[in-house]
Amino acid sequence: MELNDIINQRKSIRKYKDQDVSKQLIDEMIHCATLAETWKNSQTPRYHVIQSKELLKQFKAQCLPEFNQKNVENAPVLIVSTFVKDRAGYQRNGSPDNELNNGWGIYDTGLHNQNLILKATELGLGTLVMGIRNERSIRKLLEIPANEMIVSVIAVGYSDIDPQRPPRKTVEEITHYY
Ligand SMILES: Cc1cc2nc3c(=O)[nH]c(=O)nc-3n(C[C@H](O)[C@H](O)[C@H](O)COP(=O)(O)O)c2cc1C
């Protein structure tokens, strides 16, 4: 598939088929994520993949608000996206390179995640990025170490819907040429 087609095809999916996704496909997606650019090649993003039926049930109930639980009701995979903090955007002595501090870690994670999401799209999978999630419950349930900042939860599965894309701003509206 052409890159333009993949970009056009990607939409947030809020209804999934009750159909498993193989570990091989998830590994392919995460491999594509590892090819993304990162601050000084610091490669701080991490993934915590939930596939077990029992843990999925527990995670959805404890870590997502009701509306997101509904959005990902049948989703067979949830990927918690984190990054190792205080590295991207920081010097070896621990001082920040500039005012964005751990914003660079979040920036790298977003780039990484988008590679994963576009690869999922190419593989015929739907995704939903969720920023509305309970950080403390996720950390506790998955025992995520204190040096990792939790960013998003990404649902992955076979789409059971073909949603309309919400409207976008135009190039002119968001761009300044000098
Ligand atoms: C950082 C981030 C957080 C988001 N959090 C949620 C969320 O918690 N629940 C949800 O239903 N959609 C969430 N979305 C999806 C956006 O609502 C969606 O990307 C946007 O409306 C554009 O639609 P599209 O993805 O179909 O192009 C999130 C997207 C991003 C990038």
Task: Walk me through what this model shows.
With 178 residues, the protein is an alpha+beta fold. It contains seven helices and four strands. A four-stranded antiparallel β-sheet has the order 1-2-4-3, with helices on both faces. Helix 2 packs across helix 5. The longest helix has 20 residues, at 103-122. The radius of gyration is 17 Å and the shape is globular. It starts with a helix and ends with a helix. Residues 11-12, 14, 68, 71, 128-132, 152, 165-166 line the site of flavin mononucleotide (FMN).
Bound ligand species = flavin mononucleotide
Percentage of helical residues?
A: 25-40%
Q: What is the overall shape?
A: globular
- Give the helix/strand class: alpha+beta
Beta-strand level of the residues, as a percent range?
A: 15-25%
Strand elements, count: 4
Q: Please summarize the sheet with the most strands.
A: 4 strands, antiparallel
Q: State mean pLDDT (0 to 100 scale).
A: 98
Helix-strand sequence? HHEHHEHEHEH
How many helical stretches? 7
- Tell me the strand order in the biggest sheet: 1-2-4-3
Radius of gyration: 17 Å
